User: Fold this.
Amino acid sequence: MTNLISVRGLRVTGRRADGGDVPIVRDVSLEARQGEVLALVGESGSGKTTIALALMGHARAGCGISGGEIEVAGHRVDRLDAAGLRAFRGRTISYVAQNAGSAFNPALTLHRQVIEPALTHWVLPRREAERRAVELFRAMALPHPETIGARYPHQLSGGQLQRLMAAMALITEPEVVVFDEPTTALDVTTQIEVLEAFRAVLAHRGITGVYVTHDLAVVAQVADRAVVLRHGAVCESDATAMVLERPRTAYARQLVEACHLPVRPARPAAAPADGAAAEPVLTVSDVIVGYGRVDARGLPARRILDGIDLSVPQGRILGIIGESGCGKSTLARTIAGLQPPAAGTLRFRGDILAGGVGHRTPEQRRRLQIVAQNADLVLNPAWTVGAILERVLEFFHGLRGVAARAEALRLLDLVHLPHALFDRRPMELSGGQKQRVNFARALAARPDLVLCDEITAALDPVVAAAILELMSELQATLGLSCVFITHDLHALRAVCDRVAVLLGGHVVEQCEAASLMDGAHHPYTQLLVSSVPEMRAGWLDEVAARRRATTPGPVPPAADGGCPFTPRCGLRVEGVCDRVPPPIINSPDGQRIACHLPPDELPVLPRT
Amino acid sequence: MTRSLGPLILGRLAASAFSLAFVVVTIFAITAALPGDVADTLLGQSATPEAAASLRHAMALDQPAWLRFWHWAGDMLHADPGRSLLTGRPVAELVGPRLYNSLLLAGATAAVSVPLSLALGLACTMARGTVFDRAATVLMLGTVSVPVFLIATVAVFVFAVQFHLAPALADINAVHSPLQFVRVFLMPVATLSGATTAQMSRMIRACMIDVFSAPWIEMAVLKGVPPVRIVLFHALPNAIGPVVNAIALSLSSLLGGVVVVETVFSYPGMAGLMVDSVAARDVPVVQCCALIFCMVYLALTTLADVVAVASAPRGRDR
Assistant:
């Protein structure tokens, strides 16, 4: 069998502002046979997207394909002229972008965009194209396939858009489809549905796929062959199973290891030295946050957070996990004082904490620090690292001059950054370094509690693993208490002592992090935990089969007061779950589950 | 799913009415604060304090400001701008023909410059970074930088004096046929269009390039969509909001900000009338002109806002 894709000696160079050339992709060769799925694996900056785009004869602004042969389905892509490329793209090879939310034109209906390739390439008359689009929507398991096309992108969820984008890619029946991190922006529960839909369509139509990702667990599910890239060059290239199970190069081994984060061992709660130490650092009681019309009791009609009860004991890390839109970032904003609650109280070391940050005492503000997700947005690009740290030291501790400099250097040591970075600006730092500076900035205040909002979400796995390690270390050496907000179960298990699972603004379960993967749990926790891809082939089939067996029929969303998981719950009791607020089951080991099911009927996770 | 535009337009109109009320007060305050008054102008050299005082009394200029405002605002509500203090003729009679002339000039300029700047802006977007784009940029920046009176004077020198293509003075009473219209309006319109087109096409180019950096434009490229279709079908609908705003801003200056052009070509427009009236302290005429300028400005920006919201599906949903 001949190769459908064959790339030899591909070079892509970027032009610097000063006119010099920077190699982005150097001497890359790869091939894929008809019907195979080839994964391009690597971290950001490894050139994986650049290579995928080069297969389509496209280079982003400031870059150019400067050498090598690219052959796709009998076309010499590197020799095509502009008209030839137009005829080739979208017809022979099509593209599924990383973020469907921004890759669809916001001003046009989805329908017009989805059938556009078929009309542009004169593949089908309009009527036929519309019929095929509906067919593809159905194959992608989209709701209301007949009418969903009449909507605009902002009216659909990310998972739905991603599947619509795949439908758009398939409408011309291309020979090759390039998937560029198509599930990275999705929640794990949605990712499963999307991955399964993609895989089924590729297999059914015998399409050759190129799958760009940094997630090896996803590679295990979809790809036949994997190419590991680093700094724009091929590091390792083999059958998927070989790369994942017996990586030959050190870098590939490192990537594989980053996917197996060590799980933090259970630690006993800090022994109270005296009576006061037993008091939690932060207590959140009955907090309600929302917007819209306010009723007689001053409570908003639309609630983002509803009746949140949490506490963070001294020296412990509380993890908060949930899908996008569950209210976890709002919770962080509420604790930080940026979004005052409509009802409920926050207590810090027993004292009432005002809802708005402006009403808190300077001391309270010092003791509660936040580390934001995106270090690029919070570090002032015009200031040096040293100035960023010294400002906090001066503001909270009145340190200046030599004393401030010495303390700032000590902070750099604490987050394992070289002193040489003191005079650099954030722009000159890598993503991981910036996140460390961000951390050091929070530590400069000498806080009692640090709020970490998705601090690893924007980082590559290897870098993220190092940041998590730093966090555990700081927690152990400084006795820091933390609230760690994330959507990533691996990260959660690697650093947290205790976990709160958030769904639709409610805490559906709280338990020790060590017991998250086994034992009885809330049905939603079980869904969440079992949705995290595992790095073995066949996992997706098992999960998908299990899901199909237990997926409940559609019901109207839970009325006010019911359990937020009702519409998706396979174990729901009609007439109860959707009407009555679930009672909280307390178990002796500190687990709290909000569910109507009797404790012995809760789903049990297998020990992994 | 999609709400009707009715409430939105009503809301914008209410906001405009509020702005207008504010403008009315401001205009009155400024004209009241002008040093000197029409009595000085009328009496000229022969002014004695007694004569000026009696003239002021006869013109009711000695009433307190709030009372004058009350009468003026009340009359304005009945669309009666009063009478000129200088000639005693109704202000409406004075302003009416001038407004017609100004609208004619602005309309002709808009008819030339809007399509021209759209075409230029889009062409520069598609060819950005090329020699064409750079040349157009230099030309546009040059046009914007040269003072209008210089362009106007040079135009008169070249077209009227050297080649006799058009009359040096824009005598609009001489317009009886389309050809004469073109001859008379050629130079004022060309002069005004130069600056307006340069400004508008720069703004359109900036809006379009912003839109062009969106990921869905790359997606369209990767679908094999031809460049012209990308600009017209994908980019333009998303740029309508900012582009219409840019156009509205440029056009709203066409009515009031053209004193120089009117002067150079002796064109009887509103701007000239207003400047003359300010010099003579003919307050009712000044107030009427200022109010009309503000209303046109408000109407254009309101219209642009409504178009911008209506053109964005996401805006309609909110």
Summary: Chain B has a mean pLDDT of 81. Residues 106 and 254 of chain B are 6 Å apart (CA to CA).
